[in-house]
């Protein structure tokens, strides 16, 4: 075997090895692209869930706008990886929603927390969002001050959701004229917020629930006093009628009874 043949064979072998390495690099890049796209799609679904499943009372306007901006940003990253018409439409829809919400002056209506399972699910969602905040902060998608602000709100919401559930049950009891139950449930709502009573928002909520309980108690006491007065008046009327009945001339007139 001549030297030239050996060199050619070595060149062919080296080229083959290079070709295999190039294929592996391309495959690795393709898999990494798919992995990143999968993560971004999961993140988009996660953000969409926060937007849809957080009741309005637990989603201040600035927080909701930030979530919309995160969703639009995720779609931009996805489009850079895999341009797609459906992705473009989803991105445009999210951007339109964000703009409409930013321009809207209408206050979003609070959603009742009417089920214990709903309380559990919301607390899980709060925990998930807390992790999302940490990741966003690490990726520099949110500044430290905003992250701290939203994390503080989450700490409040974890207690507030249980208090709101008790408040809902108290309202239902009140509407069914179960006033003692309503008072007890409103006081339980106050107790739910007791661990964070130093927080201004919690203190305000505690005063609101305590005010409802005090108002019902006051109304009950007033009703009891009115009933007592009515009872005394009826007794006096009965005594007057009886005295008239047994009085001289009146008794003569009514003795046939």
Brief description of this entry?
The protein has helices spanning 3-53, 61-81, 85-103, 116-138, 144-175, 179-192, 200-246, 248-254.
- The Cα radius of gyration reads 36 Å
Secondary-structure element string = HHHHHHHH
Which descriptor suits the 3D outline?
elongated
N-to-C span: 147 Å
Q: Number of helical runs?
A: 8
Class by helix and strand content? mainly alpha
Please state the average pLDDT score: 85
Helix content: over 70%
Uncertain stretches: 245-257
The percent range for strand residues is under 5%
Keywords: Membrane, Transmembrane, Transmembrane helix
Transmembrane segments: 6-25
3D structure, described in words:
With 257 residues, this protein is mainly alpha-helical. The protein contains 8 helices and no strands. The protein has helices at 3-53, 61-81, 85-103, 116-138, 144-175, 179-192, 200-246, 248-254. Helix 1 (3-53) runs antiparallel to helix 2 and helix 4 (116-138) runs antiparallel to helix 5. It is elongated. It starts with a helix and ends with a helix.
Helices and strands in order, then pairings?
Layout lengths: L2 H51 L7 H21 L3 H19 L12 H23 L5 H32 L3 H14 L7 H47 L1 H7 L3
Helix pairs in contact: 1-2, 2-3, 4-5, 5-6, 6-7
Keywords: Membrane, Transmembrane, Transmembrane helix
């Amino acid at each position: 075997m001549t030297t030239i043949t050996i060199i050619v064979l070595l060149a062919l072998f080296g080229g083959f090895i290079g070709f295999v390495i190039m294929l592996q690099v391309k495959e690795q890049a393709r898999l990494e692209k798919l992995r990143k796209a999968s993560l971004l799609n999961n993140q988009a679904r996660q953000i969409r869930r926060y937007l849809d499943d957080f009741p309005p009372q637990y989603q201040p306007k600035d927080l909701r706008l930030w979530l919309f901006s995160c969703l639009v940003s995720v779609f931009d990253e996805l489009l850079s990886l895999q341009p797609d018409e459906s992705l473009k439409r989803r991105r445009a829809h999210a951007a339109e929603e964000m703009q409409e919400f930013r321009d809207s002056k209408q206050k979003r209506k609070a959603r009742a927390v009417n089920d214990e399972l709903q309380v559990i699910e919301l607390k899980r969602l709060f925990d998930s969002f807390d992790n999302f905040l940490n990741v966003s902060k690490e990726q520099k998608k949110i500044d430290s001050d905003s992250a701290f602000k939203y994390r503080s709100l989450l700490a409040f919401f974890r207690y507030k959701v249980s208090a709101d559930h008790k408040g809902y049950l108290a309202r239902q009891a009140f509407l069914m004229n179960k006033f003692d139950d309503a008072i007890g449930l409103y006081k339980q709502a106050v107790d739910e917020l007791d661990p964070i009573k130093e927080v201004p928002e919690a203190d305000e909520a505690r005063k609101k629930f305590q005010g409802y309980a005090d108002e019902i108690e006051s109304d009950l006491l007033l009703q009891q006093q009115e009933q007592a007065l009515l009872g005394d008046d009826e007794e006096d009327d009965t005594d007057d009628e009886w005295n008239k009945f047994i009085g001289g001339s009146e008794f003569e007139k009514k003795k046939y009874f």
